[in-house]
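User: Design a sequence. Structure:
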């Protein structure tokens, strides 16, 4: 087992992905999907993620994993990403629920805060940055169970946001997973940030 240099850091992890992506892929050819998703990723990074000091860890098919040093930056970036997705949906669908795309261009987002082990690991001729931690796992789970247009915030991230973001926009919920298990988290009211 090889070892690598690592350090412990605190991050807010954000997992955001496109809802209904499998259905979109059935309705359109790969070039159309690549154009839509490519534009989404480029615009999201340039106009929303970088603006709030975010770090793109990975693009995962129709999703992305992001890290922020400040939890409020992660939260504002999440709101901005949701707003951008709404703009894209209105542009592609002409404001109709089922326009050119055949469905909404919607995203779901999970956000959590905590300690991450970060290190560089050589694989072949490349060096990769590895970031692992419970907050990454939780952000992924929350992103997975978020409804379209929804931001789900974990308890540790919510504690970090108290006093920095208007607490009225958060609602405490319990949400189940398709594969079993339930999570207590905080739902962000869509009307508060769209």
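Assistant: Done.
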């Amino acid at each position: 087992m090889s070892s690598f240099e690592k350090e412990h850091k605190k991050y807010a992890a954000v997992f955001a992905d496109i809802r209904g992506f499998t259905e979109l892929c059935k309705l359109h050819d790969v070039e159309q999907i690549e154009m839509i998703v490519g534009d989404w990723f480029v615009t999201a990074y340039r106009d929303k993620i970088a603006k709030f000091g975010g770090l793109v860890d990975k693009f995962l098919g129709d999703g992305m994993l992001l890290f922020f040093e400040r939890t409020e930056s992660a939260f504002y970036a999440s709101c901005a990403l949701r707003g951008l997705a709404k703009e894209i949906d209105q542009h592609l669908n002409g404001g109709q629920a089922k326009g050119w795309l055949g469905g909404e261009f919607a995203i779901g987002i999970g956000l959590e805060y905590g300690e991450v082990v970060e290190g560089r690991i050589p694989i072949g001729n490349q060096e990769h940055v590895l970031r692992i931690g419970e907050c990454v796992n939780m952000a992924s789970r929350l992103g997975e169970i978020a409804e379209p247009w929804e931001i789900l915030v974990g308890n540790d991230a919510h504690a970090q946001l108290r006093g920095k973001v208007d607490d009225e926009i958060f609602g405490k919920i319990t949400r189940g997973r398709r594969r079993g298990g339930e999570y207590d988290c905080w739902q962000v009211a869509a009307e508060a940030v769209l």
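The longest helix spans residues 71-93. The helical segments are 21-27, 30-49, 71-93, 134-145, 155-161, 190-193.
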